[in-house]
Design goal:
This protein is mostly helical. Helices cover about 75% and strands about 5% of the residues.
Length: about 210
């Protein structure tokens, strides 16, 4: 049984990684608008967290982070912001692109477990999808401000505004669209997968009615 479970997990993570790479290296994954991009790549990360838990979410999140970093150097697309950050400090650019996605995927696994114990698979998956996009944006922009906030590039973008106002202004429309798409798609996929052995069954909770 353990061998079968390990095989299923390996196949699942390989498939989700392949889907993420397909999205990352085709127009399916990004919609570039100015210095930022509306990304749908958090959806495979959310599905990995749903089916494989925190470790699976973190692993696929790392793949997402790597593809995002490679765009800083023109591999698989080009990110104007990423290229600028890479020219300022390549190591910090790697951290800023990688860490938020790994942390996001890891936390999504626990978010799904928490919600699944209290609701059906569609609601639990939808909430996980929402937080996939929300936390990705939150962690990404926080890392940007913390790691590059003192640079002339970011200071020019901030333009003397409050940091929170700057973040909301810069990613407002993008973030809303990402969260809506991620919520709906992840909810539908998670509900469909709940009919298979890939999604853990609902656990009893003292909180649940």
């Amino acid at each position: 049984m353990k061998t079968r479970t390990a095989t299923v997990n390996l196949v699942t993570i390989s498939m989700l990684t392949a889907v993420l790479l397909l999205m990352a290296y085709t127009p399916l994954g990004y919609l570039n608008i100015g210095p930022l991009a509306i990304t749908f790549n958090m959806i495979p990360v959310a599905i990995a967290a749903i089916t494989l838990g925190p470790a699976g979410g973190a692993a696929v999140g790392a793949v997402f982070g790597l593809t995002s970093f490679l765009q800083c150097i023109g591999i698989g697309g080009t990110s104007a912001m990423g290229a600028m950050l890479f020219s300022i400090n390549p190591f910090l650019a790697f951290v800023q692109r990688m860490l938020p996605r790994v942390l996001d995927g890891f936390l999504l696994g626990y978010i799904f477990r928490f919600m699944r114990a209290r609701s059906n698979s569609f609601i639990a998956s939808s909430v996980t999808g929402f937080f996939a996009a929300f936390l990705n944006t939150l962690f990404f922009m926080t890392a940007l401000v913390v790691l590059f906030g003192n640079t002339a590039y970011v200071q020019e973008m901030i333009g003397g505004r409050n940091v929170i106002v700057f973040i909301c202004t810069l990613v407002g429309v993008n973030a809303v669209f990402e969260m809506l798409a991620s919520t709906l798609i992840t909810g539908a996929v998670g509900a469909a997968l709940s009919k298979t052995v890939l999604v853990p069954a609902r656990r009893k909770s003292s909180v649940a009615a």
